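In this section we walk through a basic example: taking a raw amino acid sequence and producing a predicted 3D structure, encoded as discrete structure tokens. The instruction is simple. Fold the sequence below.
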Amino acid sequence: LLAGLLATAVEAQDPAEGWMAYAVGTLQGGQRITSAEARWRVPADPEEGGAFFSPWFGIETSDNLNLIQPVNPWVGDGWEIYNEYFQWQPTNNYNSRSISVNAGDEVYGKVTFNEADESYTMVHSVNSTGESVSSTIKVQNDDSGSPKHYNILYFVMEKSQYDCAQYPPDNQVVFYDIKVEYDGKPATPTWKTSFVDDHCNCRAHIVSESSIKITWDSGSGETGSQAAIADAHAQQLHSGVSASLRAAARRDEAVAVASA
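The resulting token sequence is shown next.
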């Protein structure tokens, strides 16, 4: 059984189970994302509490195994922002300290490549207060010993285990002022939309070159899986850190995560 579980973990990669709608951006010939940023407003508070889900954007390596993501989760009774890094092989999940935010707040996320030490700096901030959190993530090496390249950009609504009534009643989040640089130059990725878990009619829409909207239907009446809900309460966004240990797991703002 353990061997089977390990085999499953090795084979897993993004887009992952639990993702609802997403937009994915790539650039033909683009070797590395050197900067990516976006703004959005925190969705409305759900009318029914208890769920754990998040809209977020992030950058990923070409093998879909390393994800750097400024996240904006609803944690059952309120909204937060923090920085997250998830690595599939070997499993590694890092979360920065969190900042409490309110529905309607404009938040801003940016990820910037640091060539000198092969790392990325991730900054997440609340525009109304100026409060921010910053993290430095070391780029993991590939099997040949060379640093991996992050060249995929995602905008996602994640965690599909809940009743539709537990998602925000405004039924959308809009990412705007999206700016991307590949290899140090401004670029416009080619966007595609899809979904992993078809729940609450959650879909991604390309509004323009610099705006992406994700919608859902909180009034559809669909219910979530109770087993999956119980499992989700014991997991972070990517099955990393136990939710009950999140506070203890959040470290100082500028933590460098060592490459494996």
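Looking at the output, two observations stand out. Helices lie at 2-11, 226-233, 246-249. The two ends are 25 Å apart (CA to CA). In the next section we compare this with other chains.
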